Amino acid sequence: MTKKISPVEEFDSVPSQRSQSAIMRDYYENEIKNKRKNCTDILCLVLFTIFMVVQVALSFLIYFSGGDPKNILLPRDSAGNLCTEPTQNLFYFNILECIGINTLLTGCSTPTICVQECPTTYYFYKIESHREILFNNYCRKDLLSNKFSGAIPNSVDEAMYLDLAKQKICPVYTIPYKSYYSRCIPAISAAVLDSAGNLIVNDTSSDQSFQINDLNQDLNFNLVKQGTEKLFELMNLKNFLQSLLEDFVSSVVLIIVLLLIASVTSFIYIIILRFILKPLIYLTLIGLVGALGFAVYYCISKYFQLKEQPQTSVELKPDVNYYLSLSVTWLVAGIISAVILLIVLLLILVLIKRLRLAIQIIKEASRAVTSIFISLLFPVVPLLLQLAFLAYFIANAVILACSGTTLFRITGNSSNLTEGSSCEQGSSPECVFYKYGFDANSAYNSVISFLNAYQWVPQLYNLFMLFWVQAFIVGFNQMVLAGCFGDWYWSKSKSSCVLFRSLKDTLVYHLGSIAFGSLLIAICKFLRTIITLVERRLKSATGNNRAIGCCIKFMSCCCKCCLWCLEKVLKFINRNAYIMVAIYGRNFCKSARDAIKLLASNPLRALVLDRVTDFILFLGRLLITAGVGVLGFFFFSRAFYIHPTFRKYFAPELHYYWVPLICVIVGTYLITKIFFTVFEMAVDTIFLCAMKDLSINDGSEEKPYVMSTKLLKILSVKNKKSKEKKDNDKF
């Protein structure tokens, strides 16, 4: 007799079966989420922290080293005085000794003094009233005090003044000047300078005229033009830069609108990739095969057409049309095209399955990015950090470069002193200010003095830290995004919280691994910089020896090329190692080994995925940048009608419309780079996760695959159904 049981008893008597989703959830919790919460590469993090502490300490020492950016931004006169208020302009005794643009940067050999206002008229020492003005306003006070034992008279006679001028204590003449970047430069019109007229000055008291000279030659406007031509070019450049700034300010609203359009377009492109990717790739392949097929047909047709004509022996001629008239040229071109077509067809047949896998992974990446929208905004944070540290590096370098004391050297050969040799301030009229630095012959008795004396040591350390920190920030961005998309793959979570969870795990557990990988990149970049510096020093030491110079350049290029290749390989390894660290929580070396194993076991899949991703992202950058650039061109050039109400903002009057247009194009490229960097990271992360899923799971009830159904189908694997589910399916 069959015993009846209640539905409750029947339910209780059936052994509970765990669903595949529950198994996947347990795997994610136990094997990924919990295990990745391990601190990795702690020693590297300690080392990075020590280096950063030293960098901060060095910054404090640099700050107290006496460095002041004014020392390189503002000029100093021959006595070493900084030209600040109220004497903020640098006056040159003889402008003819200041030929070239270097006058604005390093000064020239003529004596200089700081004056309150630049001379605005002609003065010449032979005229008594002029001589008094020159003596009281434009002579070197430090040397006059020594010359007259501290009791400087109000005026001197012509003979005395001539003696002072020969000693380079006082100027012989002045011409009209104007202040430009705190330097006094001639303010004579270009029309006058183009004339060959002499510089004549009149003495109204004696009704005499004098030819201005510099004690060696008479001055004319052509000589003044030769000495100041570059300075006038810079004056025109100032007006040009002002126009550029006005154009930028006038069009800033339109620039912002166009950049917002670029951002929205980039996001839309990532969204629609899942729908247009497959036809886009297949149409590209069909177009490539069709183009090659047409090339074979055209070349062979041309060959048979030219074959019927009388042929001559082939000669070497610098004429392309001659070779195009030969049948053998088209035969060779047809054979080459046919071989390329055959290779392409074979590659398509061999790689078609891997191409389908690449397309599906890119679609999965598109889904991941759009479901975690905030991931597209995260790279802005590392970008701001990089810019902030770059500004910090520049500030350190500038302050260190302008720390030290005033250095003087001998200019001219009117004395027994060697020209160019160092000298003490005020020791002779030929002793003028040279630069702001540190005298290597002086003794140092403090850390700050040591830093000033050997500036290359902290400068190189500062540069190394720039390389390390910049690579560290890049690695931080990659690891946070990798953890985010890894969570999306294994947990199928569509919440934006996965990004913040990945950010927390990276900050708490994995900074050491980032420090390890970024250190390798920094060392490669630093070695390349050292090789470049050594190459320059060796070239300067060998002089004009061309043979030795070529050998040095060849060896340097070989070393830098090898280091560049090594850096590219390390960046590739770092990127994939960071993905494994972020997901599985193992140290850098083990994660790099696991990533290389996965890639080495799937080389064709990785290669096809990489090439396809590069192609569609290049196409996206090109389309978006070109599209926004063309749109900006129509707006900035006023190529179409805009209502007067909006013309101020969307069609401003510009001096050079290409200025805001370049800003839009560069800004659009940077925006697409930020968006597509996130997408690339999603593609790489999902690919490694899928390959890891394929290697550790077998599709059984205990180890089901986590990947999507479409990926399972492309990879020709499937999850096995439980026995109960099979019975239910039969029923």
UniProtKB/TrEMBL annotation:
Main localisation:
membrane
Name a GO CC annotation attached to this entry.
plasma membrane
Stretches that traverse the bilayer: 42-64, 248-273, 280-300, 320-352, 364-381, 387-408, 463-488, 508-527, 615-636, 656-676
* Keyword rRNA-binding assigned: no
Superkingdom as given in the UniProt entry: Eukaryota
Localization annotation: Cell membrane; Membrane
GO MF annotation, one: transmembrane transporter activity
Membrane topology classification? Multi-pass membrane protein
UniProt keywords, alphabetically: Glycoprotein, Membrane, Transmembrane, Transmembrane helix
What the protein does comes down to: Choline transporter.
PANTHER family xrefs: CHOLINE TRANSPORTER-LIKE (SLC FAMILY 44), CHOLINE TRANSPORTER-LIKE 2
Give the family this protein belongs to, as stated in its UniProt record.
Answer: Belongs to the CTL (choline transporter-like) family.
- What is the protein name stated in its UniProt record? Choline transporter-like protein
